[in-house]
Write a structure and sequence with these properties.
The protein is an alpha+beta fold. Helix content is 24%, strand content 20%. It has a single domain, classed as HIT family, subunit A (2-Layer Sandwich), CATH 3.30.428. Bound molecules: guanosine-5'-monophosphate. Guanosine-5'-monophosphate is lined by residues 10, 19, 21, 33, 35-37, 96, 102-105. GO terms for molecular function: catalytic activity.
Length: 123
């Protein structure tokens, strides 16, 4: 499947510095920042700097270095927020892809949700 990437999406603008964000962590290939409308006390988004619409697009076309950095960044954000499973608090990681998921921003992002009991899986 060929993906078409909209360079005017809101996260592309954040990556270009055209819109401010509350940065949590920056790496060579990724940016982590707080969600503007948090669903939990800690709601952090991790995005690749590359132009990928969703997770399928990313794992199909990104380099191994980008994929490794993305996974490590997600893990670091969880740990640095103090929500490692080792602390007893825990977290939830979600990514939406495509219309049925209600994906709003067409640039891959993982939601890291933490800071309260989230109950059963959200649907
Ligand atoms: P999606 O529904 O695409 O999985 O999630 C998009 C997320 O991006 C939502 O949780 C929404 O609150 C967040 N969001 C949308 N616009 C902005 C923005 O300008 N800044 C930040 N930090 N988050 C945004």
């Amino acid at each position: 499947m060929a993906y078409s990437y909209d360079t005017e999406n809101i996260f592309a603008k954040i990556l270009r510095g055209e819109i401010p964000n509350d940065t949590v962590l920056e790496t060579e290939h990724c940016l982590a920042f707080r969600d503007i409308a948090p669903q939990t006390p800690d709601h952090i988004l991790v995005i690749p700097r590359g132009a990928y619409v969703n997770f399928d697009h990313f794992v199909t076309e990104a380099s191994d270095a980008e994929i490794l950095d993305f996974n490590r960044t997600v893990a670091r954000v969880c740990k640095e927020a103090g929500v490692s499973p080792d602390t007893g608090n825990g977290y939830r990681v979600i990514t939406n892809a495509g219309p049925d998921s209600m994906q709003e921003v067409p640039h891959l992002h993982f939601h890291i949700l933490a800071g309260r009991n989230m109950g059963a899986l959200l649907v």
